[in-house]
Design goal:
Blueprint (H helix, E strand, L loop, with lengths): L15 E2 L6 E2 L1 H15 L1 H8 L28 H11 L3 E2 L1 H6 L2 H4 L4 H6 L2 E2 L3 E3 L7 E2 L2 H13 L7 E5 L5 H14 L13 H10 L9 H6 L2 E5 L3 H4 L1 H12 L3 E5 L5 H4 E3 L4 H5 L3 E2 L3 E3 L6 H14 L5 H7 E2 L1 H9 L3 H8 L3 H12 L4 E5 L1 H4 L4 H14 L9 E4 L6 H6 L8 H11 L11 H9 L5 E5 L3 H4 L3 H9 L3 E6 L12 E6 L8 E2 L2 E2 L2 E4 L4 E5 L13 H13 L7 H6 L1 H11 L6 H4 L6 E2 L3 H5 L9 E2 L15 E6 L4 E2 L2 E2 L9 E2 L4 E4 L1 H7 L6 E6 L7 E10 L6 E5 L24 E7 L5
Parallel strand pairs: 2-10, 3-4, 7-16, 8-9, 8-14, 9-12, 13-24, 14-15, 16-17, 17-18, 25-32, 29-31
Antiparallel strand pairs: 1-28, 5-6, 5-18, 10-11, 19-20, 21-22, 22-23, 25-33, 26-27, 29-32, 30-31, 30-33
Helix pairs in contact: 1-2, 1-3, 2-3, 7-27, 8-27, 9-21, 15-18, 15-19, 15-21, 24-26
The structure holds ligand MGD (2 copies) and molybdenum atom.
Length: about 750
């Protein structure tokens, strides 16, 4: 078995466990964020930077995609936003000498945490064929080298262009245009591993693959169900919105296999009561569901609504399609199936149903706990059935709320980062630039790995992200990357994907959100779209980490010119220096962006149109909102095994590790822990504090092992376990993906426990 670098150094990974907390944020969060920020940035830079986060004249927080409230507080950021900012705005630097001192083979032994701590990348670097070290390369030479490798391909489909969700609208638009001018739709993105299931389910049922609510709707809702999401860590500013909703009378229900501190109680660090008091109780009802039980839960609710005939018949008759087929199936649901799949007491489901019936306006929020299962798409379709039944789409205070992850992941998709673009989008793009875009669908993230493994993709290019660490089946993926002719990463920080390379590799450093972006045409700004379809500008203010660093837009445009040649009629040079000219093109290609340059300059930006939300028009195949029939399924777990979900700790941003603590869950000083219910632990003989190996089981019979995890007895729902991503990605089989969306099943891996084989 190939040896892998762990995310944290085994020698320093010594987790300590104390009781989990029951409230999030408050004074400790403020202290924690300021300490991490000043460590990285120094006091003066910390103050100057954090003051500009999410302010109308400042930059969009690179933390998450939660929207900014209209009237911003002086400090519209959160503990984890501050950490994300500090990670980027750090004063540490990686220069060419660093690469001269550290051979790639040595860097490949380092943990992801260590790599990330070395600082911002400052110069383009090349790892040449057979070389042991990265060496400096000029920008033009780097672009010429990529162009040469692209030209050597038999077909443009031999290249794949990955995007992580921090990329701005402007850079994303230029990037997809470049890929399509080259002739490929191979535009995999992080969304494929994230909310793809939401997009698939919502596009089919409502006609728009995005959420239908605004912050105002949350404030007006009677009932908010938060399923499969840990906002205390991953979307801390959402807690302020939930707090405000509660003040206005909303009931909040949380559906999760874990009691998550942030959802239980919130101490708002932006007011005195939150800083020192007990905070606000957020969750009125906690349903501790089994992993993968949500389809059954929503089905049971739907059956209860049908039984009581509490259906909004007028809405269903006017706006929906497929009600009868759906209702016939839902009426057949048996209580036994629901209890087995959810593990919930029936009384709790009835209690939730009573809340639903007492509520006029209902919102369902969700994230990875729903999207990363084999039956994720049917589960989210059932959530839509649930909302449609009582007319909870397209009216104030109600709707679907998939809570996005990366700060511009939604905008990137709007800009055309998609391996399966619509014909309408391609027509508009081709019309604007006078060419025939490729029509064949491209590879998503999982298919890109398969294609690299099979020798079909030979050039892998990544606009941000950390592909080898974020994707499943780490050993398969790393071997696939190594088969490429060339791997290229446009990055702000060093990560694992820079040291697991093709025959040749390039690191192209770039500006981040917090950096000032000045071109020959003066200061530029970019734009992003939040989780609620609000588009606004983002302008960094810090001196860039090195002179001569290029923005993502400039990198794409200069590469495009090098690869497509002087005869290409797209004005790449103009785009690279004057982003207004790019925005003018976006305005003509992407629906909802008319007058982009004018609207993006309004304070707070503008909201994209959304048919279901704005006028109850549903651009689906039937022209109506579609009810769907979703056969009831739940993960099966053989005796003596548990179902493992891979989730985030409080001190990480996806594959970027900020620290070794998971404060709310009471874990400090280490990441190699597995949370197991004490009753399951007793049955399986897993003593608290014992070290074990996690061994994945899947139908292909391949052994996947993650060694040396400490057992923590924790109140997780029975039959399930939890451990951190990306240490556990080695356990997720490449071919174990969600039906329809092809998203890796990161929340459902069958594991058995074997004696500890030692630290790596
Ligand atoms: N600080 C910080 N912020 C982030 C990120 C980060 O890493 N750090 N990542 C960003 C990104 S890209 C994303 S996508 C989001 C992720 O945001 P989340 O989706 O909140 O992230 P996870 O840690 O994967 O948490 C999944 C949650 O779902 C629950 N869950 C797991 N399986 C099930 C299930 O079957 N049913 C139900 N009902 N619940 C389940 C888990 O117990 C956990 O509470 O956060 C974004 N924001
Ligand atoms: N097992 C398991 N696997 C998962 C998940 C899970 O829950 N469990 N979650 C999945 C999800 S939801 C997601 S979104 C993916 C995340 O997958 P990715 O988006 O690929 O991973 P990140 O860790 O967010 O990428 C971090 C890197 O991005 C670069 N970066 C940061 N900011 C910028 C910038 O402004 N510009 C550029 N060019 N580069 C930048 C830095 O070099 C940093 O090292 O992982 C997925 N993988
Ligand atoms: Mo994500």
């Amino acid at each position: 078995m190939a040896k892998q670098a762990p995310q944290s150094d085994p020698a320093q990974d010594a987790p300590e466990v104390s009781a989990p907390q029951h409230a999030a944020a408050g004074l400790p969060a403020v202290g924690h964020s300021l300490r991490m920020a000043t460590e990285q940035m120094g006091a003066r830079r910390t103050l100057a930077t954090l003051r500009k986060v999410n302010q109308p004249d400042g930059f969009d927080c690179p933390g998450c995609a939660w929207p900014e409230p209209g009237k911003t507080h002086t400090a519209e950021f959160c503990e984890n936003g501050a950490k994300a900012v500090a990670e980027e705005a750090t004063e540490r630097r990686i220069h060419a000498e660093f690469f001269a001192a550290h051979p790639v083979a040595e860097l490949a032994e380092r943990s992801g945490y260590w790599l990330g701590q070395q600082g911002r990348l400052t110069a383009p670097m090349l790892l040449d064929e057979g070389a042991t070290h990265y060496t400096p390369i000029g920008w033009d030479e780097a672009f010429a080298l990529i162009a040469e490798e692209l030209r050597a391909l038999d077909t443009p489909d031999g290249a794949a262009f990955y995007t992580s969700g921090r990329t701005s609208n402007e850079a994303a638009f230029a990037y997809q245009l470049f890929a399509r001018r080259l002739g490929t739709n191979n535009l995999p993105d992080c969304s494929n591993m994230c909310h793809e299931s939401s997009g698939s389910a919502l596009t089919e049922t409502l006609g728009v693959g995005k959420g239908s609510v605004s912050l105002k709707d949350l404030y007006q809702a009677d009932l908010i169900i938060v399923a499969g999401q840990n906002p205390g860590t991953n979307h801390p500013r959402m807690l302020s919105a939930l707090e405000r909703a509660k003040r206005a009378g909303a009931t909040v229900v949380s559906v999760n296999p874990l009691p998550e501190a942030g959802l239980e109680r919130f101490k708002n660090p932006q007011n005195a009561r939150g800083l020192v008091g007990h905070g606000t109780k957020l969750t009125d009802l906690f349903l501790q569901i089994r992993l993968g039980g949500d389809l059954a839960l929503f089905r049971a609710l739907n059956q209860l609504i049908l039984d009581k005939d509490a259906v909004d018949h007028a809405f269903v008759a006017e706006h929906c399609h497929g009600f009868e087929e759906f209702a016939a199936e839902a009426r057949e649901t048996t209580r036994e199936e629901v209890l087995a799949a959810t593990g919930l007491p029936w009384e709790q489901i009835e209690e939730l149903a009573r809340m639903v019936l007492a509520s006029e306006k209902v919102i369902v929020c969700w994230a990875m706990g729903l999207t990363q299962h084999k039956h994720a798409v049917p589960t989210i379709r059932e959530v839509v059935n649930f909302l449609l039944l009582r007319g909870n789409v397209g009216r104030p205070g109600a709707g679907v709320c998939p809570v996005r992850g990366h700060s511009n992941v939604q905008g990137d998709r709007t800009m055309g980062i998609f391996e399966r673009p619509s014909e309408a989008f391609l027509d508009a793009l081709g019309g604007e630039f006078g060419f025939e875009p490729p029509r064949a669908h491209g590879y998503d993230s999982v298919d890109t790995i398969r294609a690299m493994r099979d020798g079909k993709v030979r050039v892998f290019f990544a606009m941000g992200g950390n592909f080898v660490a974020a994707t499943p089946d780490t050993e398969v993926t790393e071997a696939a990357m190594r088969r490429c002719r060339l791997t290229v990463h446009v990055s702000t920080k060093l990560n694992r994907s820079h040291v697991v390379t093709g025959a040749r590799a390039l690191i192209l450093p770039t500006l981040g959100r917090t950096d000032r972006d000045v071109t020959a045409k003066g200061a530029q700004f970019v734009s992003v779209e939040d989780s609620m379809g609000q588009v606004h500008s983002s302008r960094g203010g810090l001196r860039p980490p090195a002179p001569g660093l290029l923005s993502e837009v400039a990198i794409v445009c200069r590469l495009a010119r090098a690869a497509l040649g002087p005869q290409d009629n797209v004005p790449w040079e103009e785009f690279a220096v004057d982003y207004d000219t790019l925005r003018d093109r976006i305005a003509r290609v992407v629906p909802g962006f008319a007058d982009f340059n004018e609207k993006v300059r309004r304070p707070g930006g503008f909201t994209l149109p959304h048919g279901p939300r704005d006028s109850r028009t549903f651009p689906t195949a039937t022209g109506k909102a579609n009810f769907t029939v979703n056969p009831l399924t739940a993960p099966e777990v053989p005796a003596g095994r548990l179902l493992l979900q891979t989730l985030r700790s409080h001190d990480q941003y996806n594959t970027t590790i900020y620290g070794l603590d998971d404060r709310y869950r009471g874990i400090t000083g280490g990441r190699r822990v597995v949370l197991v219910n004490p009753a399951d632990a007793a049955e399986l003989g897993l003593a608290e504090g014992a070290y074990i190996d996690l061994v994945g089981e899947w139908k292909d019979g391949v052994e996947r092992r993650a060694p040396h995890f400490k057992v923590v007895h924790y109140p997780v729902a029975r039959g399930g376990a939890a451990a951190y991503y990306p240490e556990t990605n080695v356990l997720v089989p490449l071919d174990s993906t969600a039906d329809i969306s092809n998203t890796p099943t990161s929340k459902a891996v069958v594991v058995r426990f074997e004696p500890d084989s030692g630290a790596s």
